[in-house]
Write a structure and sequence with these properties.
Blueprint (H helix, E strand, L loop, with lengths): L4 E5 L5 H12 L5 E6 L1 H4 L4 H11 L4 E4 L6 H8 L4 E4 L10 H12 L3 E3 L7 H4 L7 H13 L5 E6 L2 E2 L11 E2 L4 E5 L5 E5 L1 H12 L8 E4 L3 E4 H12 L4 E5 L1 H10 L4 H11 L11 H5 L6 H8 L8
Parallel strand pairs: 1-2, 1-4, 2-3, 4-5, 5-6, 6-11, 7-10, 9-13
Antiparallel strand pairs: 8-9, 10-12
């Protein structure tokens, strides 16, 4: 399979690590990398975003100014110039058909290989009609890709970003109150992976030989229960943390009372426990002997344990 020209969509929290790792491997594989960004993102004066653009320009890649909200016909005319497309758009780029729009444009353009934005949980185990309505469209994309033969596809299941376990918004670890609050139960497990590891493994999977085709690949930085997470937090902090549980009834009531709350949707999904974890030993990285970052290793490096904050 030809992968000589690759278009990466987006350069955010996940896109940037994917770009860095893809660019590194591209040099050894005679592959050209192009990154699609909006013109205003390329021309930005914001310091952090400017730093990102400057970094991208040092990676021997091409920056392409375009807007994914453009009509499908415009996307097709862009996509047809590439052998492969890796989508790192995230959900923020739009709901209500955005992922299907991209997938349809990829197929119409005759792109040989597609890595859709499916970096996350096991949508099929979770099933349709879940608390997170965006997941139904992910299943629609899978059905679309499986229903054709011209474009080969690869889906990478990553679990949750590792940092989210410790972020205040997720409501699991409260450093101030010294509480670890389990979603569902203390025995409920979650698979987590850092964006850097996702980027590294995406590049490994992309350039794997023989080429991976029409497959769902599971990766993992760690698979950990909320009870085990409490042990990690106590060990690293040297302090006792109370263990509490937001059971399924509480999580569903939170969502019922605020049905558009994005975080409540995710808390309900992760509390339910279905499709949000898999055995670490079955992961692509474990099978290949590739080292990834555990939840404990991430916390050791990124949390100021003297002041108990990220």
């Amino acid at each position: 399979m030809e992968n000589k020209s690759v278009l990466i969509l987006g350069a955010g929290e996940l896109g940037l690590p994917v770009i860095r790792n893809m660019a590194q491997k591209a040099k050894k594989n005679n592959t050209n990398i192009t990154v699609l960004l909006r013109q205003e993102a390329i021309d930005t004066d914001e310091v952090e975003k400017r730093r990102t653009i400057d970094e991208l320009k040092t990676l021997d890649i091409t920056l392409l100014a375009a807007d994914l909200s453009a009509p499908s016909s415009e996307l097709v005319s862009i996509f047809k110039n590439y052998d492969a497309i890796v989508s790192c758009t995230g959900y923020g780029s739009g709901a209500g058909g955005f992922q299907l729009k991209l997938a349809n444009a990829v197929l119409e353009a005759g792109v040989k290989r597609y890595f859709p934005w499916q970096f996350g949980v096991d949508f099929e185990v979770i099933g349709r009609g879940s608390a997170q309505d965006l997941f139904d469209e992910q299943l629609d994309v899978r059905e679309l890709l499986r229903g054709q033969n011209a474009t080969k596809w690869v889906i990478i299941s990553t679990g949750l970003f590792t940092s989210y376990l410790f972020q205040p918004f997720f409501g699991v670890v409260d450093f101030d109150k010294k509480v670890v609050n389990a979603l569902g139960s203390l025995d409920t497990a979650v698979t987590v992976t850092t964006p850097d590891d996702i980027g590294m493994l995406t590049a490994e999977i992309f350039f794997e030989k023989p080429a991976i085709e029409n497959s769902i690949i599971y990766i993992a930085g760690d698979t950990i229960t909320y009870g085990q997470l409490g042990d990690v937090v106590e060990t690293l902090s040297g302090k006792k943390f109370e263990r509490t549980v937001s059971d399924l009834e509480e999580l569903r009531n939170d969502l019922k009372n605020d049905p558009t709350n994005f975080v409540y949707k995710y808390r309900s999904i992760f509390g339910d426990g279905r499709g949000v974890s898999w055995d670490f030993n079955t992961s692509f990285n474990f099978q290949k002997g590739i080292k990834t970052t555990s939840a404990r290793e991430w916390a050791e490096k990124n949390i100021d344990w003297n002041h108990s904050k990220i």
